[in-house]
């Protein structure tokens, strides 16, 4: 997801959190959570007994009334006995009917099952079904979905118009949840194992685009129905319709796994600009396959689709709305100069195909795994195109956007993400770890290994942290604790007396230690600092500076 910025006020509050205690406590956002938050963010008993295998969604939007009608056939596997099943569909949307279609032919009582409504959660009474069996629910629904106020950050259904006044519709719902427009099990931990299909019925003057590949198009009495299908598991917030006056073109990318189909869908009058700007896609794919491993969804293709909002990482159908210009809406977020040499949305949102779509966190509280790694993909792309120092300058330059307001990791079990610092602080955490490892071959192997080990899986932050420690051969646990679970930036205190260099870390978690590359005069050296004073005797003269690539603060003390 693209980062939301305020360029009028930049909070540099991290500069005032320097203190001598290593045991200072992390800040909290002190948010009060509700019953609805728990229903949404927890694996409730009514969610625990079944697993989603597939979604087959049909939707017909009405642009004039801003309403939709739809049906979702949900194929599930029964893990254990259960009597009630929780579906999620956000108010004011309404579930009209739920049928257990896999058993309807045998028992007419399987139609119109009893449903109890509790806010955005709908509890369906299910007749006894065999454990380890597969069942299919047909959920018929309708309503006026929440309209996006400022997509993609304040999401919902987008009822837009293009510059010629023609309907231009889509959805952006990360965080808010896919249940804003279709009934589902709205929890990141349960992706449909066997993929999904999306059938979109629109006036035949418009074109409808979805995830994956176009399986079928039919026309009937002035309407057209486009059916798209993904074969791979997919985050439910990534299943998205795009509706507008689209045109398309195709190219092949010679990737690590062979030919990757790349298709581009833009409004008809934007075709010349798009064909020029989207030449950055093959460069991006080449770079990311080098660092992260093969594109994770060859079976479903890669698509870039123009949207009325800035962008989103919709799997195999990446949303693009950056105005066919470099930078972030024309700006360089790093103030280094490098950020205006490439298109932020093409790079960032496509980076999510590896981190967010291939590797997905079980809980949105661990969203830094999506955004921190994808933020770092910007640094790696800059490195691929312009060299290591350019990448370093870009990453370091983004530190001005870090607020250190609350910890990066949010509250678990309530659908609550942590600080927006998950983007640029997350990226600088990874940049610091890259320096600690001090071997790009190992660092690259870790990034590729993550995508291979957790291919099409959901994970916890602990799994990612422990994998990186294990593969690097370095215990990074305190580094992760420091940057993910507190708002403190470590302070490297130092003094030079005679030829003795003294140093230690403060403003850090208990047990924090880290090797750091420094410069004394013209001499570069590595030191390993912890919370105890360390003294190095010798020819330690000249100005003392810390390598800029470590996200720490240096402070001279007497």
Write the layout of secondary structure elements.
Elements (H helix, E strand, L loop, with lengths): L34 H7 L3 H4 L1 E13 L4 E12 L5 E5 L5 E7 H4 L10 E4 L2 E5 L8 E10 L12 E6 L5 E6 L23 E8 L3 E3 L3 E8 L2 E8 L11 E3 L1 E10 L2 E10 L3 H7 L2 H13 L9 E5 L4 E2 L5 E3 L23 H8 L7 E3 L6 H19 L1 H10 L26 H14 L2 H14 L3 E3 L1 H12 L4 H9 L5 E7 L2 E7 L7 E7 L2 E7 L4 E4 L6 E3 L6 E4 L2
Parallel strand pairs: 1-10, 16-17, 17-19, 20-21, 22-28
Antiparallel strand pairs: 1-2, 2-7, 3-6, 4-7, 5-6, 8-9, 9-14, 10-13, 11-14, 12-13, 15-16, 18-19, 22-23, 23-26, 24-25, 24-27
Helix pairs in contact: 5-6, 5-7, 6-7, 7-8, 7-9, 9-12, 10-11
Provide a descriptive summary of the structure in words.
- The chain has 558 residues and is an alpha+beta fold.
- It has three domains: 31-243, Sandwich (Immunoglobulin-like); 245-400 and 415-461, Neutral Protease, domain 2 (Orthogonal Bundle), CATH 1.10.390.10; 491-556, Immunoglobulin-like, CATH 2.60.40.
- The chain has twelve helices and 28 strands.
- It has helices at 35-41, 45-48, 101-104, 271-277, 280-292, 344-351, 368-386, 388-397, 424-437, 440-453, 461-472, 477-485; strands at residues 50-62, 67-78, 84-88, 94-100, 115-118, 121-125, 134-143, 156-161, 167-172, 196-203, 207-209, 213-220, 223-230, 242-244, 246-255, 258-267, 302-306, 311-312, 318-320, 359-361, 457-459, 491-497, 500-506, 514-520, 523-529, 534-537, 544-546, 553-556.
- The strands form seven sheets. It has a seven-stranded mixed sheet.
- A hairpin with a 2-residue loop joins strand 12 (213-220) and strand 13.
- It is globular, with a radius of gyration of 25 Å.
